[in-house]
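Query form — protein HAD family phosphatase

QUESTION: What is the three-dimensional structure of this chain?
INPUT:
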Amino acid sequence: MNYQLLALDLDGTLTNSRKEITPSTRDALIDIQKNGKKVVLASGRPSQGVLPLAEELHLGDYGSYILSYNGGRITDCRSGEIIYSKYLPNDVAAPLLEIVKNYPGIDILAYTDTELISGGDTNEYSEKESFINHMPITKVDDFVSYITKNNNNKFLITGEPELIQEVKAEAEKHFHSYLSIYCSDPFFLEIMPQGIDKAHSLTKLLTSIGLSTDAMICCGDGYNDLTMIETAGLGVAMANAQPLVKKSADYITKSNDEDGVLHVINEFMR
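ANSWER: The structure tokens for HAD family phosphatase are given below.
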């Protein structure tokens, strides 16, 4: 199969444990773009948190794409145009905050272009999200009125895994099928518009550029990568992926600390 597009999760997939892209992987990704292939950085991160890696890989020079907020937004790196964006209904903010406040130590984060807005109890996992994205946390007293002044692609609820499962159950009970609610990590609960995930948005992108899902390779390691791995012509799990992700994949590559993405490029895109 002549694969034309490579969609990559970032944390645990493209980047190693030091949150870096190795020089050999970087060079290979630039090389396949020079040869006409497209690269999509598909992440739960906000757009601002993906941008430094997109610049490192010269995505703007070759017309590749950022898929941020787990598919809530797609950006054309060459033009800077947002070609798809889906927002949360503003009326979910207040009941979500009420649920969060029932659990000490749990935080809820919203995103601006430059900072994370915290409405709960800032914790080590909120700090982790801040570190990953190079965005400071701003604690606000009136979270709901502050964040509903703007559109929100997603909220992130953070905390200890045991409590996150309790929050997840309560949120699912309250919102039923009104929102997409899932864990990207045991300590991260993603709150997304209904029906939005990486596969949904990648399919929209493929349609807009005239490619089929058969022409796409998707690589990931986490639960939020499942849908795109199942949709791709070749779905790839990292050796360090969650067991369910490995079970769903067509191919298991090396780990993110062993240049697993480079291995995929050499095997299937050269």
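ADDITIONAL NOTE: The longest strand covers residues 179-185.
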